[in-house]
Amino acid sequence: MSEDQGAVHCDLINEVALITLDRPRALNALSHAMVLRLQALLDEVDGNPSVRAVVMRGAGPKAFCAGGDVIALVHSVRDATALHQTFFIDEYKLDLRIHTFRKPVVAFMHGIVMGGGMGLAQGAALRLVTDHVRMAMPETRIGLIPDVGASFFFSKMPAPVAAYLALTGANINAADAIFCNLADARSRVNNPEELPSLLSDIAWPAQNDVDTIELLRKALAAETSATHIEGSRLAELCPLIYQHFDLASPIQAIVAALAESPNEWARATAQTLRSHSPLMMALTLAALRRGRHLSLPACFSMEYDLVQHAMSCGEFAEGVRAHLVDKDHTPSWTVPSMEALTDSVVASVLAAAVDQPIKPWLH
Predict the structure, then answer these.
(1) I need a labelling partner for 219 at 20 to 30 A (CA). Which of 148, 267, 270, 281 fits?
(2) Boundaries of every domain in the chain
(3) Whether 34 contacts 87, CB under 8 Å
(4) What is the DSSP letter of 24?
(5) Residues 53-110: pLDDT tens digits?
(6) Same fold: 5-220 with 233-362
(7) pLDDT tens by residue, 175-204
Protein backbone atom coordinates (compact mmCIF):
# COMPACT_ATOMS: atom_id res chain seq x y z
CA MET A 1 0.00 0.00 0.00
CA SER A 2 1.34 3.42 -0.95
CA GLU A 3 1.52 6.26 1.54
CA ASP A 4 -1.40 8.00 -0.15
CA GLN A 5 -3.55 4.85 -0.05
CA GLY A 6 -2.90 4.76 3.68
CA ALA A 7 -4.31 8.29 3.80
CA VAL A 8 -7.79 6.80 3.42
CA HIS A 9 -9.03 4.44 6.08
CA CYS A 10 -12.32 2.89 7.12
CA ASP A 11 -13.71 2.01 10.55
CA LEU A 12 -16.86 -0.04 11.09
CA ILE A 13 -18.88 1.60 13.86
CA ASN A 14 -22.34 0.29 14.76
CA GLU A 15 -23.00 -1.03 11.24
CA VAL A 16 -21.78 2.18 9.59
CA ALA A 17 -18.59 2.41 7.53
CA LEU A 18 -16.84 5.61 8.62
CA ILE A 19 -14.42 6.54 5.82
CA THR A 20 -11.78 9.13 6.65
CA LEU A 21 -9.63 11.13 4.25
CA ASP A 22 -6.54 11.28 6.41
CA ARG A 23 -4.14 13.68 4.78
CA PRO A 24 -4.68 16.78 6.92
CA ARG A 25 -1.39 18.55 6.10
CA ALA A 26 -2.53 18.61 2.46
CA LEU A 27 -6.08 19.60 3.49
CA ASN A 28 -7.10 16.05 2.56
CA ALA A 29 -6.53 16.75 -1.15
CA LEU A 30 -7.14 13.71 -3.34
CA SER A 31 -4.28 11.87 -4.99
CA HIS A 32 -4.92 9.19 -7.59
CA ALA A 33 -4.05 6.50 -5.06
CA MET A 34 -6.64 7.90 -2.66
CA VAL A 35 -9.30 7.83 -5.37
CA LEU A 36 -8.53 4.18 -6.10
CA ARG A 37 -8.57 3.36 -2.39
CA LEU A 38 -12.00 4.99 -2.02
CA GLN A 39 -13.29 2.92 -4.93
CA ALA A 40 -12.00 -0.25 -3.31
CA LEU A 41 -13.58 0.63 0.05
CA LEU A 42 -16.96 1.24 -1.57
CA ASP A 43 -16.68 -2.16 -3.26
CA GLU A 44 -16.05 -3.75 0.13
CA VAL A 45 -18.93 -1.90 1.76
CA ASP A 46 -21.31 -2.76 -1.06
CA GLY A 47 -20.60 -6.45 -0.62
CA ASN A 48 -20.78 -6.44 3.18
CA PRO A 49 -24.36 -7.15 4.40
CA SER A 50 -23.49 -6.01 7.92
CA VAL A 51 -22.91 -2.41 6.76
CA ARG A 52 -26.02 -0.24 6.56
CA ALA A 53 -24.48 3.05 5.44
CA VAL A 54 -21.33 5.06 4.74
CA VAL A 55 -20.20 8.30 6.36
CA MET A 56 -17.34 10.26 4.80
CA ARG A 57 -15.26 12.80 6.72
CA GLY A 58 -11.90 14.53 6.54
CA ALA A 59 -9.19 14.31 9.19
CA GLY A 60 -8.27 17.39 11.15
CA PRO A 61 -10.19 20.61 11.75
CA LYS A 62 -9.27 22.45 8.55
CA ALA A 63 -10.85 20.55 5.67
CA PHE A 64 -13.14 17.83 4.46
CA CYS A 65 -11.28 17.86 1.13
CA ALA A 66 -9.69 20.82 -0.64
CA GLY A 67 -9.82 19.20 -4.08
CA GLY A 68 -7.45 17.19 -6.23
CA ASP A 69 -3.67 17.18 -6.22
CA VAL A 70 -3.33 19.80 -8.97
CA ILE A 71 0.46 20.01 -8.81
CA ALA A 72 0.74 16.31 -9.67
CA LEU A 73 -1.63 16.83 -12.59
CA VAL A 74 0.43 19.71 -13.97
CA HIS A 75 3.57 17.57 -13.71
CA SER A 76 1.77 14.82 -15.61
CA VAL A 77 0.95 17.17 -18.48
CA ARG A 78 4.52 18.49 -18.55
CA ASP A 79 6.06 15.01 -18.45
CA ALA A 80 3.53 13.50 -20.89
CA THR A 81 2.44 10.77 -18.48
CA ALA A 82 -1.09 9.38 -18.33
CA LEU A 83 -2.00 10.64 -14.85
CA HIS A 84 -3.89 13.74 -16.02
CA GLN A 85 -6.17 11.43 -17.97
CA THR A 86 -6.50 8.43 -15.65
CA PHE A 87 -6.98 10.59 -12.54
CA PHE A 88 -10.09 12.26 -13.94
CA ILE A 89 -11.46 9.00 -15.34
CA ASP A 90 -11.17 7.30 -11.96
CA GLU A 91 -12.33 10.37 -10.03
CA TYR A 92 -15.47 10.73 -12.13
CA LYS A 93 -16.20 7.00 -11.88
CA LEU A 94 -15.90 7.32 -8.09
CA ASP A 95 -18.18 10.35 -7.96
CA LEU A 96 -20.77 8.63 -10.15
CA ARG A 97 -20.59 5.58 -7.88
CA ILE A 98 -21.41 7.74 -4.85
CA HIS A 99 -24.39 9.28 -6.64
CA THR A 100 -25.76 5.82 -7.44
CA PHE A 101 -24.54 3.81 -4.43
CA ARG A 102 -27.06 1.25 -3.14
CA LYS A 103 -26.49 2.12 0.51
CA PRO A 104 -26.96 5.61 1.96
CA VAL A 105 -23.86 7.81 1.91
CA VAL A 106 -23.47 10.75 4.29
CA ALA A 107 -20.96 13.53 3.62
CA PHE A 108 -19.74 15.42 6.69
CA MET A 109 -18.54 18.69 5.17
CA HIS A 110 -16.38 20.72 7.51
CA GLY A 111 -13.74 23.36 6.91
CA ILE A 112 -12.64 23.65 3.28
CA VAL A 113 -14.74 21.79 0.72
CA MET A 114 -13.63 22.58 -2.82
CA GLY A 115 -13.27 20.97 -6.24
CA GLY A 116 -12.82 17.23 -5.82
CA GLY A 117 -14.21 17.47 -2.30
CA MET A 118 -17.45 18.79 -3.74
CA GLY A 119 -17.46 15.89 -6.17
CA LEU A 120 -17.38 13.42 -3.28
CA ALA A 121 -19.99 15.24 -1.22
CA GLN A 122 -22.60 16.19 -3.80
CA GLY A 123 -23.46 12.59 -4.62
CA ALA A 124 -24.24 11.77 -0.99
CA ALA A 125 -27.79 11.00 0.10
CA LEU A 126 -27.31 13.28 3.13
CA ARG A 127 -25.01 16.29 2.87
CA LEU A 128 -24.22 17.82 6.24
CA VAL A 129 -22.37 21.10 6.78
CA THR A 130 -20.73 22.40 9.92
CA ASP A 131 -20.84 25.99 11.16
CA HIS A 132 -17.34 26.63 9.83
CA VAL A 133 -17.61 25.14 6.35
CA ARG A 134 -16.05 27.06 3.45
CA MET A 135 -17.30 25.74 0.14
CA ALA A 136 -16.37 26.74 -3.41
CA MET A 137 -15.76 25.65 -6.98
CA PRO A 138 -12.82 27.96 -7.84
CA GLU A 139 -11.65 26.28 -11.05
CA THR A 140 -11.97 29.18 -13.50
CA ARG A 141 -9.36 31.03 -11.45
CA ILE A 142 -6.76 28.35 -12.24
CA GLY A 143 -7.64 27.72 -15.88
CA LEU A 144 -10.18 24.92 -15.52
CA ILE A 145 -13.95 24.48 -15.53
CA PRO A 146 -15.99 23.43 -12.49
CA ASP A 147 -16.11 19.66 -12.99
CA VAL A 148 -16.70 16.52 -10.83
CA GLY A 149 -20.36 16.71 -11.87
CA ALA A 150 -20.78 20.45 -11.31
CA SER A 151 -22.69 20.90 -14.57
CA PHE A 152 -25.21 18.47 -13.06
CA PHE A 153 -25.40 19.53 -9.41
CA PHE A 154 -25.38 23.22 -10.26
CA SER A 155 -28.50 22.54 -12.35
CA LYS A 156 -30.39 21.88 -9.11
CA MET A 157 -30.27 25.57 -8.19
CA PRO A 158 -31.55 28.68 -9.99
CA ALA A 159 -29.53 29.38 -13.13
CA PRO A 160 -28.27 32.85 -12.08
CA VAL A 161 -26.97 31.47 -8.76
CA ALA A 162 -25.26 28.59 -10.56
CA ALA A 163 -23.61 30.99 -13.01
CA TYR A 164 -22.43 33.26 -10.20
CA LEU A 165 -20.91 30.46 -8.13
CA ALA A 166 -19.33 28.68 -11.10
CA LEU A 167 -17.79 31.78 -12.69
CA THR A 168 -16.56 33.60 -9.58
CA GLY A 169 -15.60 30.61 -7.42
CA ALA A 170 -17.07 32.52 -4.48
CA ASN A 171 -16.71 30.98 -1.03
CA ILE A 172 -20.02 30.19 0.66
CA ASN A 173 -20.88 29.33 4.25
CA ALA A 174 -23.21 26.75 5.79
CA ALA A 175 -26.36 28.85 5.43
CA ASP A 176 -25.46 29.65 1.82
CA ALA A 177 -24.94 25.96 1.05
CA ILE A 178 -28.38 25.04 2.36
CA PHE A 179 -29.95 28.02 0.60
CA CYS A 180 -28.60 27.01 -2.83
CA ASN A 181 -29.11 23.24 -2.41
CA LEU A 182 -25.47 22.24 -1.99
CA ALA A 183 -26.24 20.88 1.50
CA ASP A 184 -29.26 19.29 3.16
CA ALA A 185 -28.80 20.24 6.81
CA ARG A 186 -26.42 21.52 9.45
CA SER A 187 -24.50 18.90 11.36
CA ARG A 188 -25.23 18.28 15.02
CA VAL A 189 -21.48 18.69 15.71
CA ASN A 190 -18.65 20.69 14.17
CA ASN A 191 -15.74 18.40 14.99
CA PRO A 192 -15.33 15.30 12.81
CA GLU A 193 -13.80 13.52 15.80
CA GLU A 194 -17.25 13.45 17.42
CA LEU A 195 -18.81 11.34 14.67
CA PRO A 196 -17.88 7.91 16.12
CA SER A 197 -19.74 8.74 19.31
CA LEU A 198 -22.85 9.86 17.44
CA LEU A 199 -22.79 6.76 15.26
CA SER A 200 -22.37 4.49 18.29
CA ASP A 201 -25.52 5.94 19.84
CA ILE A 202 -27.80 5.01 16.94
CA ALA A 203 -30.31 2.37 17.99
CA TRP A 204 -31.02 0.42 14.84
CA PRO A 205 -34.45 -1.27 14.87
CA ALA A 206 -34.65 -4.98 14.17
CA GLN A 207 -36.99 -4.78 11.15
CA ASN A 208 -35.52 -4.72 7.68
CA ASP A 209 -37.72 -1.92 6.29
CA VAL A 210 -36.07 0.76 8.44
CA ASP A 211 -35.57 4.18 6.82
CA THR A 212 -31.80 4.23 7.24
CA ILE A 213 -31.25 7.72 5.90
CA GLU A 214 -33.91 9.19 8.20
CA LEU A 215 -32.32 7.59 11.25
CA LEU A 216 -28.93 8.93 10.17
CA ARG A 217 -30.43 12.39 9.75
CA LYS A 218 -31.90 12.28 13.27
CA ALA A 219 -28.58 11.10 14.70
CA LEU A 220 -26.23 13.43 12.82
CA ALA A 221 -28.18 16.53 11.76
CA ALA A 222 -29.12 19.48 13.89
CA GLU A 223 -32.82 20.08 14.40
CA THR A 224 -34.26 22.17 11.59
CA SER A 225 -35.77 25.56 12.26
CA ALA A 226 -37.19 28.50 10.37
CA THR A 227 -33.81 30.22 10.68
CA HIS A 228 -31.66 27.48 9.14
CA ILE A 229 -30.48 29.86 6.37
CA GLU A 230 -30.02 32.81 8.68
CA GLY A 231 -26.63 34.31 7.87
CA SER A 232 -26.77 33.51 4.16
CA ARG A 233 -24.91 36.24 2.32
CA LEU A 234 -25.85 34.49 -0.93
CA ALA A 235 -29.55 34.97 -0.20
CA GLU A 236 -28.97 38.68 0.42
CA LEU A 237 -27.11 39.03 -2.88
CA CYS A 238 -29.76 37.29 -4.97
CA PRO A 239 -31.35 40.48 -6.37
CA LEU A 240 -27.96 41.55 -7.76
CA ILE A 241 -27.07 38.02 -8.87
CA TYR A 242 -30.37 37.68 -10.75
CA GLN A 243 -29.80 41.08 -12.36
CA HIS A 244 -26.32 40.34 -13.67
CA PHE A 245 -25.83 36.58 -14.07
CA ASP A 246 -28.00 35.47 -16.96
CA LEU A 247 -26.91 31.98 -17.99
CA ALA A 248 -27.82 32.75 -21.60
CA SER A 249 -25.54 35.81 -21.78
CA PRO A 250 -21.94 35.63 -23.04
CA ILE A 251 -19.28 36.17 -20.43
CA GLN A 252 -18.23 39.46 -22.03
CA ALA A 253 -21.74 40.88 -21.54
CA ILE A 254 -21.90 39.70 -17.93
CA VAL A 255 -18.57 41.32 -17.05
CA ALA A 256 -19.37 44.53 -18.91
CA ALA A 257 -22.70 44.97 -17.13
CA LEU A 258 -21.11 44.32 -13.75
CA ALA A 259 -18.33 46.83 -14.47
CA GLU A 260 -20.80 49.53 -15.50
CA SER A 261 -23.01 49.08 -12.44
CA PRO A 262 -23.13 51.80 -9.77
CA ASN A 263 -23.10 49.01 -7.19
CA GLU A 264 -19.75 48.46 -5.45
CA TRP A 265 -20.24 44.70 -5.14
CA ALA A 266 -20.98 44.40 -8.85
CA ARG A 267 -17.86 46.34 -9.85
CA ALA A 268 -15.69 44.29 -7.49
CA THR A 269 -17.17 41.10 -8.97
CA ALA A 270 -16.27 42.32 -12.47
CA GLN A 271 -12.68 42.79 -11.31
CA THR A 272 -12.64 39.26 -9.92
CA LEU A 273 -13.92 37.80 -13.20
CA ARG A 274 -11.36 39.74 -15.23
CA SER A 275 -8.61 37.88 -13.38
CA HIS A 276 -10.03 34.45 -14.31
CA SER A 277 -9.53 32.55 -17.55
CA PRO A 278 -11.80 34.09 -20.22
CA LEU A 279 -11.87 30.86 -22.22
CA MET A 280 -12.68 28.66 -19.23
CA MET A 281 -15.45 31.02 -18.10
CA ALA A 282 -17.02 30.87 -21.56
CA LEU A 283 -16.79 27.07 -21.54
CA THR A 284 -18.20 26.99 -18.02
CA LEU A 285 -21.29 28.90 -19.12
CA ALA A 286 -21.73 26.52 -22.05
CA ALA A 287 -21.37 23.48 -19.77
CA LEU A 288 -23.89 24.89 -17.29
CA ARG A 289 -26.43 25.58 -20.04
CA ARG A 290 -25.97 22.11 -21.52
CA GLY A 291 -25.87 20.36 -18.15
CA ARG A 292 -29.39 21.46 -17.26
CA HIS A 293 -30.65 19.05 -19.94
CA LEU A 294 -28.19 16.15 -19.61
CA SER A 295 -28.02 13.01 -17.51
CA LEU A 296 -25.34 12.77 -14.84
CA PRO A 297 -23.10 10.42 -16.90
CA ALA A 298 -23.44 12.76 -19.88
CA CYS A 299 -22.39 15.69 -17.71
CA PHE A 300 -19.30 13.83 -16.52
CA SER A 301 -18.46 12.90 -20.10
CA MET A 302 -18.74 16.50 -21.30
CA GLU A 303 -16.70 17.79 -18.37
CA TYR A 304 -13.96 15.25 -19.05
CA ASP A 305 -13.47 16.52 -22.60
CA LEU A 306 -13.45 20.17 -21.50
CA VAL A 307 -10.98 19.43 -18.71
CA GLN A 308 -8.68 17.58 -21.08
CA HIS A 309 -8.74 20.58 -23.42
CA ALA A 310 -7.71 22.80 -20.49
CA MET A 311 -4.84 20.39 -19.87
CA SER A 312 -3.66 20.13 -23.47
CA CYS A 313 -3.90 23.83 -24.37
CA GLY A 314 -1.82 24.89 -21.34
CA GLU A 315 -4.51 26.94 -19.61
CA PHE A 316 -4.59 24.79 -16.47
CA ALA A 317 -0.81 24.59 -16.14
CA GLU A 318 -0.54 28.37 -16.43
CA GLY A 319 -3.26 28.98 -13.86
CA VAL A 320 -1.63 26.63 -11.37
CA ARG A 321 1.78 28.19 -12.00
CA ALA A 322 0.51 31.73 -11.45
CA HIS A 323 -1.59 31.09 -8.36
CA LEU A 324 -0.13 28.04 -6.61
CA VAL A 325 3.53 27.68 -7.68
CA ASP A 326 5.15 31.02 -8.50
CA LYS A 327 2.26 32.94 -6.87
CA ASP A 328 2.79 36.01 -9.02
CA HIS A 329 -0.97 36.01 -9.71
CA THR A 330 -0.44 37.19 -13.29
CA PRO A 331 -1.38 34.27 -15.54
CA SER A 332 -0.79 34.53 -19.28
CA TRP A 333 -4.01 32.96 -20.52
CA THR A 334 -4.26 31.45 -24.00
CA VAL A 335 -7.06 33.95 -24.63
CA PRO A 336 -5.57 36.95 -22.83
CA SER A 337 -8.69 39.07 -22.29
CA MET A 338 -12.46 39.25 -22.61
CA GLU A 339 -12.00 41.38 -25.71
CA ALA A 340 -9.88 38.67 -27.38
CA LEU A 341 -12.47 35.94 -26.75
CA THR A 342 -14.31 35.10 -29.97
CA ASP A 343 -17.30 32.90 -30.68
CA SER A 344 -15.24 30.80 -33.09
CA VAL A 345 -12.63 29.95 -30.43
CA VAL A 346 -15.32 28.80 -28.00
CA ALA A 347 -17.29 26.94 -30.68
CA SER A 348 -14.25 24.97 -31.82
CA VAL A 349 -13.70 23.61 -28.32
CA LEU A 350 -17.36 22.85 -27.74
CA ALA A 351 -17.64 20.96 -31.02
CA ALA A 352 -15.02 18.52 -29.75
CA ALA A 353 -16.64 18.04 -26.34
CA VAL A 354 -20.26 18.92 -25.80
CA ASP A 355 -22.02 16.71 -28.36
CA GLN A 356 -19.82 13.64 -28.08
CA PRO A 357 -21.11 10.18 -27.01
CA ILE A 358 -20.95 9.33 -23.32
CA LYS A 359 -17.59 7.77 -22.45
CA PRO A 360 -17.82 3.97 -22.20
CA TRP A 361 -16.25 3.97 -18.71
CA LEU A 362 -19.29 5.90 -17.42
CA HIS A 363 -21.76 3.15 -18.35
Answers:
(1) 148
(2) 5-220, 233-362
(3) no
(4) G
(5) 999 999 999 999 999 999 999 999 999 999 999 999 999 999 999 999 999 999 999 9
(6) yes
(7) 999 999 999 999 999 999 999 999 999 999
Rounded Cα gap, residues 152 and 295, in angstroms: 8
Architecture of the 233-362 domain: Alpha-Beta Complex (3.90)
3-state SS assignment for residue 4: coil
Nearest to 128 by CA among 210, 66, 192: 192
Name the superfamily (CATH) of residues 5-220.
2-enoyl-CoA Hydratase; Chain A, domain 1 (3.90.226.10)
Which are the contacts of 242, defined by CB distance < 8 A and separation ≥ 6?
158, 160
- Supply φ then ψ for residue 16, to 5 degrees: -120, 130
Burial 167-179, CB ≥16 within 10 A → b, else e: bbbbebbbbbbbb
pTM: 0.95
For residue 16, what are the contacts with CB-CB under 8 A and spacing of at least 6?
51, 52, 53, 54, 55, 199, 202, 216
